[in-house]
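User: Hi! I'm working on a homework problem where we have to compare a predicted structure to a textbook description. Could you give me the structure for the chain below?
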Amino acid sequence: MALSKDRLIGRKAILLLLSEDPDMQLNQLKENNWKGCIGKVGSMDAHKVVAAIETAAKKNGIIESTIYRESHALYHAIMEALHGVTRGQVQLGSVLRTVGLSFAVLRGNPYDKEQEGDWIAVSLYGTIGAPVKGSEHETIGLGINHI
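Assistant: Happy to help. Predicted structure tokens:
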């Protein structure tokens, strides 16, 4: 069970997120039978960040909303990415922090063997800080989970 170097799902999720031409990146991923989407969310509520990412993943056919394990895998990938953004304490408004984030969700098989199945990655990049313009700094997070 070896990771394929040209299919590192976390790396690809981050590159998609930071790409100057995400549509081209998404088209290349689709050629390899991967699914992905990008979006933006800003909030003082972590549950709104989770909801925005879940909604985008469902609308873009990355996960099937009627299959629990797919929603569950996405949820854990989102939470892992939020841990990176919030430095381990997934709290926003309750501690007077707000985020403005771009996100990418990517689904595919990063392994040489097809039998390994799909994995899902969520990457987040943007700002976090006090809810006062100019009181924020950059942040990034990545979460990966098997489906």
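For your comparison, note the following. Strands lie at 35-43, 98-108, 119-129, 136-146. The mean pLDDT is 90. Good luck with the assignment!
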